[in-house]
Write a structure and sequence with these properties.
alpha/beta; 43% helix
Length: 250
């Protein structure tokens, strides 16, 4: 895969969390992603989040293998041929808990495409210094935290994002946020982080084909208009591709 967006944060596996309920829903989510120019997707189900009770990495790996096998089978049908143009990797959106930190230290945590990069989500009301301390624990284990939807944490946007970036974390924002899909405050925070050069990756955080789409087409158009083609390509294509290849970001 040489061209197209690489979506590092997408809830694509069926019947695991608040993403697709069925394989058919997964297919439609991926159809929207493909139509929007995405050619690689990392499946990132919620892990260590109490709401979904998903803590077993082997269960997630089995679900991923089963889903990919079914998608490969479907891609042989002309109606679903687009699936053959999408590369799919395993990852997880890891909620910061003591259990996650134990899994990291025991080398059991699921990283992005088996790389040293780990997608990390914070409890929303966690103090900034505890966010930083958690990221430092993960980094001390030899991993690179990729902080999911960083614009959702007002305290980080205000004063913590630079500290995380200085510690080698990669900051990810959700594509819908730049369009105002989650309100004006998140849009302002996203633009501020993008403008200040804090963001490494823009991803869909897609959950379905409608309300929380995996399409990056409109956000990419907006980003190119506001920040130019080169920076947009870095956020949507180049940096995500480097991460799944386990390479350092430029």
């Amino acid at each position: 895969m040489q061209t197209g967006h690489v979506d590092l944060h997408c809830h694509v596996l069926p019947a695991l969390d608040d993403g697709p309920a069925t394989l058919a829903d997964t297919v439609e989510l991926l159809r929207a992603a493909w139509a929007g120019g995405t050619r690689g997707v990392v499946a990132t189900p919620h892990m260590f989040l109490q709401q979904f009770d998903l803590r077993d990495p082997e269960r997630v790996r089995r679900s991923f293998d089963d889903c990919r096998a079914e998608l490969d089978r479907l891609s042989e049908n002309e109606k679903y041929a687009f699936l053959g143009e999408l590369e799919l990797w395993l990852g997880a959106e890891n909620h910061l808990t003591p259990e996650l930190l134990a899994a990291v230290e025991e080398r059991r945590a699921i990283t992005l495409a088996g790389s040293r990069y780990l997608l990390l989500e914070f409890p929303p009301l966690l103090p900034v210094q505890q966010m930083i301390a958690g990221a430092e624990r993960i980094a001390a284990a030899g991993l690179v935290p990729v902080v999911a939807h960083v614009e959702r944490y007002p305290r980080l946007v205000a004063r913590g994002a630079a500290q995380l970036a200085a510690r080698g974390c990669v900051l990810q924002i959700n594509a819908a946020s730049v369009l105002g899909g989650w309100g004006s405050a998140l849009r302002r925070g996203s633009v501020r982080l993008l403008r200040d050069g804090m963001v490494g990756v823009v991803a869909s955080d897609g959950h379905d084909a409608a309300e929380r789409s995996a399409s990056l087409e409109q956000p990419a158009r907006w980003l190119r208009k506001r920040f130019g083609a080169e920076r947009t390509r870095a956020w949507l294509d180049d940096n995500p591709r480097r991460i799944v290849a386990n390479r350092s970001l430029q």
